[in-house]
């Protein structure tokens, strides 16, 4: 289901859900949104990158070390939980954790289920200049290209009984001139182009984007209901 969505709709969903995570500090709403994000991630049969998990943990550790009492200041209560670690600080860190999970999960869904040319098309569709969009899209295809070219170079070196390291492969590939794959049509007006790999919008795309818009509306309604961005269960 997720992989069949148009690349532009996945990009829009990522932007809107990121807006949800940045706007709302309601832990309940963020928890539901994080579960939806993880469900979509599992449905797409993707694997969460380990370094992103390390990045999230590092982010939480840095926030706690910089100001261990920020949760108390934020919620205006001080309920000790474990030693000097307060329940308010735990809730604050949980909120930040959910924000990170939402943003990084939807970002991975967009990047890992879209072809480089589709990413370029999505960025160009929202107004990013064609040349910049094309270069950004190509960046996400470099890893795959490197693996293919490294395999070819490694086989060629083995056939000649020569040692060949990854460092040598990187040096060679950076110096070599590669032909660019025709991933788009080079005609159009000003910064706009038509794209070969831009999938047409389906009813599923429209429903998915409407749900993302609806989530933004809910986050705004919660701000009104809570009297601010923060949900404070300690009142």
From TrEMBL:
What membrane topology does this protein have? Multi-pass membrane protein
Q: Which InterPro entries match?
A: ABC/ECF_trnsptr_transmembrane
Record's keyword annotation contains Membrane: yes
What subcellular compartments does it reside in? Membrane
**One GO term describing the cellular component:** plasma membrane
Segments spanning the bilayer are 7-23, 29-44, 51-70, 90-112, 208-231
Q: Which UniProt keywords apply?
A: Membrane, Transmembrane, Transmembrane helix
> What CDD domains is this protein classified in?
EcfT (cd16914)
Name by which UniProt lists this protein: Transmembrane component MtsC of energizing module of methionine-regulated ECF transporter
What organism does the UniProt record list as the source?
Answer: Pseudolactococcus laudensis
């Amino acid at each position: 289901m997720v992989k069949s969505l148009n690349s532009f709709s996945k990009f829009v969903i990522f932007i809107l859900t990121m807006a949800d995570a940045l706007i709302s500090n309601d832990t309940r709403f963020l928890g539901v949104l994080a579960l939806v994000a993880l469900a979509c991630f599992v449905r797409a049969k993707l694997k969460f990158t380990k370094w992103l998990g390390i990045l999230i943990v590092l982010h939480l550790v840095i926030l706690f070390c910089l100001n261990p009492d920020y949760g108390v200041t934020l919620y205006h209560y001080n309920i000790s939980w474990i030693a000097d670690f307060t329940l308010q600080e735990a809730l604050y860190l949980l909120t930040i954790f959910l924000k990170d999970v939402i943003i990084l999960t939807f970002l991975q869904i967009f990047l890992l289920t879209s072809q480089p040319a589709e990413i370029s098309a999505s960025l160009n569709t929202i107004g990013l200049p064609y040349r910049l969009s094309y270069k950004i899209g190509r960046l996400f295809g470099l890893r795959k290209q490197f693996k293919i070219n490294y395999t070819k170079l490694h086989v060629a070196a083995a056939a000649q009984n020569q040692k060949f390291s990854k460092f040598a492969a990187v040096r060679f590939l950076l110096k070599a001139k590669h032909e660019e794959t025709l991933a788009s049509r080079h005609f159009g007006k000003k910064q706009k182009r038509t794209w070969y790999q831009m999938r047409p919008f389906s009813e599923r795309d429209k429903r998915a984007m409407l749900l993302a818009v609806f989530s933004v509306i809910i986050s705004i309604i919660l701000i009104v209901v809570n009297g601010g961005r923060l949900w404070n269960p300690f009142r």
